[in-house]
Amino acid sequence: MRFDKIIFVLIFFLCFQIWAQKTVSVIPRDTSFTAANEFKKNLRHFPDIKVAKDILPAGVVEHRQIIYTTLKNTPFGDRDLHVDVFSPKKSGKYPALIMVHGGGWRSGDKSLQIPMAQKLAAKGIVTVCVEYQLSMEAKYPAAVFNIKSAVRWMRANAEKYHIDPNKIAISGCSAGGQLAMLVGLTNGVQSKEGDHGNLGFSSEIQAIVDIDGVVDFMAPSSLNLNRKPNSPDVEWLGGTFYEKPEIWKDASGIFWANENSCPVLFINSGFSRFHAGQDELVGMMKEWGIYTEVHKFDVKMHPFWLFEPWVDPTVNYIYDFLIKNLNK
């Protein structure tokens, strides 16, 4: 083969490799769950709603797009995961809340939590909006490992962000509520820790806020839903209940609850299916003497936390619950 042909083949092969790497490195994303899309969807039934805004309050300092861990050698290369942190400007140690967005474990992003995070920071709570791997990128339990890693990062960086490491709570909305419940109820469970990010620190949670998130995938109001093969929970859990019953149980927070579990706040919409398993868990908690609190907005609007007039009362419920239970 002539030398110039060899050079051509080598250049072609190198270009192909670079193209292939770029193609592989693109993380698949579903961008359908946004505040703007939900606003359009719900405006006809709720003409007075307004989207909660991302506006930094006076007295709050922000740190956005902070890398909390890097996942090595994923199918998409080295994968940075980020948090947005909102802290009171006044020096001191504050209770902290890691906030998990919703979107059916497939869509959404941490920006959906920012309006509530800013309002809570203005009241004296350090808030951390967390990015986690969605189902098109990684199946269960990857998101659990991500979030536990972010909690460990919070403790590793507590002094920098004015966090009291003994007062860390978790909240989540919809799919994020299910994740918050699972993360918070698996304190000390090694199989749920994962192996990345600040492993020398604790991922323990002191209080849980579940906003319209399922507690038990196997409760009748959840299990009896008519699901398609591409339903969000089926995709995330890697199969239907009948195909993967042990996974559906493992991902249900209620099965991890025990007499040492932390206090829980539930904030509900008027759709009962998003509260599957809640009543049974509350009953269990009462028997154990663990504090629970339930509030309901009696409206047929699932993502109410994204909109006025519900965002402020939601923030107030969260703040009052955290102060009551973290400052004991």
List keywords for this structure.
328 residues; 21% strand; 8-stranded mixed beta sheet; alpha/beta; 10 strands
What would you say this structure looks like, in words?
Strand 4 (94-100), helix 3 (114-123) and strand 5 form a beta-alpha-beta unit. This protein has ten helices and ten strands. The strands form two sheets. It has an eight-stranded mixed beta sheet with strand order 2-3-5-4-6-7-8-9, sandwiched between helices. It has a two-stranded antiparallel sheet with strand order 1-10. Helix 3 packs across helix 10 (311-326). The chain has 328 residues and is α/β, with parallel strands linked by helices. Mean pLDDT is 93; it is low at 15-24.
Summarize the structure.
The chain is of the alpha/beta class and 328 residues long. It has helices at residues 3-24, 35-42, 114-123, 142-156, 175-185, 220-223, 232-237, 245-250, 278-288, 311-326, and strands at 50-51, 60-74, 77-88, 94-100, 126-130, 163-173, 207-211, 264-268, 292-296, 307-308.
SSE blueprint:
Elements: H1 3-24, H2 35-42, E1 50-51, E2 60-74, E3 77-88, E4 94-100, H3 114-123, E5 126-130, H4 142-156, E6 163-173, H5 175-185, E7 207-211, H6 220-223, H7 232-237, H8 245-250, E8 264-268, H9 278-288, E9 292-296, E10 307-308, H10 311-326
Helix pairs in contact: 3-10
Largest sheet: 8 strands, mixed
Strand order of the largest sheet: 2-3-5-4-6-7-8-9
SS-based structural class?
A: alpha/beta
Q: What shape does the CA trace take?
A: globular
Task: Compute the CA-based radius of gyration.
Answer: 21 Å
Q: Helix count?
A: 10
Low-confidence stretches: 15-24
The average pLDDT value, as a whole number, equals 93
Cα distance, first to last residue? 80 Å
**Relative strand content:** 15-25%
Helix content: 25-40%
Order of helix and strand elements from N to C terminus: HHEEEEHEHEHEHHHEHEEH
Number of strands: 10
